[in-house]
């Protein structure tokens, strides 16, 4: 069941294209990790989803209804933790959540229940009557999360929820998000890769405002790990064309050519191993083999490959 | 409407959460009372007029000092994003902010009431005049609060908001000052003077509420406040893909016509 659909969404600011023709869908119950380097368009995309910005072109639908058609209805179903977790520092936690609950149109016993549940799930009972400005960063983050889940939204949009936390707090917040993701759809942005592997079921990589990769975390990890890069340095006839035609070789790049030697990198499937095939080819064509080196790739390499350069 | 009230309450509370709020109130009351008593003892005339005549000039600094935080603080800290992610329209947000700030300004005005009451013990004060004077002062507060809120919406910097507020209010007061009006052709000077805060407030300070003057302040406040609504969402400087300079420009700076409603 598709909950959120972005279709060809673009947003420009003063000649800079922040989001450029982004199309993706989020299914109900998914925990989507939104990954990208700084300035890739993560926050802008999230602000488009939460209606802080309006898209220049394209359409965003929640449950099949365009956002602008039922703006308030959509806001009622989305919980949002903006980047840097802005809070009213001079208010008490209790006052702040009460204020949000009123804006959320929660009254009487339903307000009390919602507050109790949010406080309980985020574990901020101890600091409920303390000024937000006095809280530690970890607690502030929890208050921000409590604000986002107060109205029991279907979709939770979290913009870098673990940014600026120490490793222990990160683990805690990550665990909390994991729990919250059990009964709702979560979209969280980050540039910490390990976080995605731990908490998300699906991965979206965005770069220069475009979606660079989209798929289940396992699949992308598998792809990333399954693919190997083999460096070959050899001298002989038709090395490049022969190597390119070998089974399992996906892509071939010439690194350098020097004194009759060719240095190539091959992107190839991890299984079966491409090295024996290369060795046999070298034997039968009478090449002199100087180097044959295999590197396995990780999610980090995939990320770097997709998001570095132009 | 409930949303507007929720925001207004938070706004008012946050003004009282800081010592600044109390300091502002004390300074305002002390200055207005001083101006009153100085005149009263000097001339031996029991009238609120000397106090109220200078009210636009005191408000010139008092109101922007109150309103400068209203929207600029939300812009700076990003809490605007949280509030607008709730089912709240921009007009409701601005309406709530306006109401909250206005209530604070009105509380300040009401704190000067003891002077009026004290006066009524010692002198034979015309109640009608006094009521009219206070109604007028409240209207003046509403008009200038609108301007202050608008100033606060154009920048995430409070000091800039304060200066912008003072400048615009000074302009609105100044266009009615005689030397300026006298130098202009009659037709233009009439039009310019009708834009002025001072012209409209002069009558009110005397205790005469002309419908035209009342109708000046209400839409003035409302339309200035409404013009602080965003024409497009602000751009966040933290998003490196979007230059920060466009943030302030995307807030509408249209100075809604203050004279259009004045011709009644």
Give the helices and strands, then pairings:
The complex is a heterodimer of chains A (310) and B (264).
Chain A: E1 2-13, E2 16-27, E3 31-35, H1 42-49, E4 57-62, E5 65-66, H2 71-77, E6 78-81, H3 93-103, H4 108-122, H5 137-149, E7 155-159, H6 167-180, E8 185-190, H7 193-199, E9 202-207, E10 210-216, H8 217-226, E11 227-235, H9 239-245, E12 249-258, E13 261-269, H10 275-285, E14 288-296, H11 299-307
Parallel strand pairs in A: 3-8, 3-9, 6-7, 7-8
Antiparallel strand pairs in A: 1-2, 1-4, 4-5, 9-10, 11-13, 11-14, 12-13
Helix pairs in contact in A: 4-5
Chain B: H1 2-17, H2 19-43, H3 49-53, H4 55-67, H5 72-77, H6 79-85, H7 90-110, H8 113-122, H9 127-153, H10 158-174, H11 178-182, H12 186-195, H13 197-206, H14 211-226, H15 246-249
Helix pairs in contact in B: 1-7, 2-4, 4-9, 4-10, 7-9, 9-10, 9-13, 9-14, 13-14
Structure summarized in a few sentences:
The complex is a heterodimer of chains A (310) and B (264). Chain A has 310 residues and is of the alpha/beta class. Chain A contains eleven helices and 14 strands.
Strand portion of chain B: under 5%
Put simply, the count of helices of chain B is 15
Report the CATH topology name of the largest domain in chain A. Answer: Rossmann fold
- The figure for the number of domains of chain A is 2
Report on the architecture of this protein.
The complex is a heterodimer of chains A (310) and B (264). Chain A has 310 residues and is an alpha/beta fold. Helix content of chain A is 36%, strand content 33%. Chain B has 264 residues and is an all-alpha fold. Chain B has one domain. Chain A binds chain B through residues 13-14, 16-18, 38-41, 43-44, 47, 50-54, 72, 75-76, 78, 80, 82-84, 86-91, 95, 99-100, 102-105, 147, 209, and chain B through 2-3, 6-7, 10, 13-14, 17-18, 77-89, 232-233, 235-236, 238-243, 245-246.
């Amino acid at each position: 069941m598709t909950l959120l659909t972005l279709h060809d969404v673009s947003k420009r600011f003063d000649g800079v294209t922040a989001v450029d023709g982004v199309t993706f869908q989020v299914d109900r119950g998914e925990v989507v990790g939104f990954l990208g380097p700084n300035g890739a368009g993560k926050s802008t995309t999230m602000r488009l989803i939460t209606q802080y910005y309006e898209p220049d072109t394209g359409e965003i639908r929640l449950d099949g209804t365009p956002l602008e058609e039922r703006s308030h209805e959509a806001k009622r179903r989305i919980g949002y933790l903006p980047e840097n977790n802005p809070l009213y520092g001079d208010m008490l936690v209790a006052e702040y959540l009460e204020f949000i609950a009123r804006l959320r149109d929660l009254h009487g016993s339903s307000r009390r229940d919602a507050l109790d549940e949010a406080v309980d799930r985020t574990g901020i009972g101890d600091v409920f009557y303390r000024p937000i400005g006095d809280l530690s960063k970890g607690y502030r983050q929890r208050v921000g999360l409590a604000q986002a889940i107060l109205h029991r939204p279907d979709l939770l949009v979290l913009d870098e929820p673990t940014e600026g936390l120490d490793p222990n707090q990160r683990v805690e917040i990550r665990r909390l998000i994991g729990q919250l993701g059990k009964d709702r759809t979560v979209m969280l942005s980050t540039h910490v890769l390990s976080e995605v592997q731990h908490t998300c079921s699906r991965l979206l990589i965005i770069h220069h405002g475009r979606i660079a990769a989209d798929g289940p975390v396992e699949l992308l990890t598998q792809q990333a790990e399954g693919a190997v890069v083999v460096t070959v340095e050899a001298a002989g006839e038709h090395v490049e064309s022969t190597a390119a035609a070998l089974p399992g070789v996906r892509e071939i790049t010439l690194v350098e050519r020097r004194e009759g030697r060719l240095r190539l990198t091959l992107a190839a499937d991890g299984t079966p191993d491409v090295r024996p095939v290369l060795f046999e080819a070298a034997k039968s064509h009478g090449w002199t083999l100087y180097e044959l080196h295999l590197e396995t790739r990780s999610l980090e390499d995939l990320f770097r490959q997709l998001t570095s350069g132009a | 409407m409930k949303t507007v009230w929720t925001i207004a309450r938070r706004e008012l509370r946050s003004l009282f959460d800081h010592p600044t709020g109390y300091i502002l109130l004390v300074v305002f009351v002390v200055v207005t009372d001083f101006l009153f008593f100085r005149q009263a003892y000097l001339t031996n005339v029991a009238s609120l007029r000397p106090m109220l005549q200078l009210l636009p000039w005191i408000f010139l600094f008092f109101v922007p000092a109150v309103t400068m935080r209203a929207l600029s603080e939300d812009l700076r800290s990003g809490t605007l994003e949280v509030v607008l992610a709730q089912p709240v329209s921009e007009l409701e947000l601005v309406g709530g902010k306006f109401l909250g700030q206005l209530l604070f300004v009105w509380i300040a005005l009401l704190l000067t009431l003891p002077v009026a009451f004290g006066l009524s013990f010692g002198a034979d004060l015309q109640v009608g005049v006094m009521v009219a004077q206070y109604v007028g002062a409240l209207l003046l507060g509403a008009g200038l609060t609108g301007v202050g809120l608008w100033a606060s919406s154009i920048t995430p910097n409070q000091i800039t908001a304060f200066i912008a507020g003072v400048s615009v209010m000074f302009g609105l007061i100044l266009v009615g000052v005689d030397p300026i009006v006298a130098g202009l052709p009659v037709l233009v000077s009439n039009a310019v003077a009708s834009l002025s805060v001072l012209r409209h407030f002069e009558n009110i300070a005397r205790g005469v509420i002309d419908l035209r003057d009342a109708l000046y302040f209400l839409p003035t406040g409302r339309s200035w406040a409404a013009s602080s609504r965003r024409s497009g969402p602000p751009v966040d400087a933290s998003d490196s893909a979007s230059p920060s300079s466009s943030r302030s420009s995307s807030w509408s700076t249209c100075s809604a016509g203050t004279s259009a409603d004045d011709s009644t």
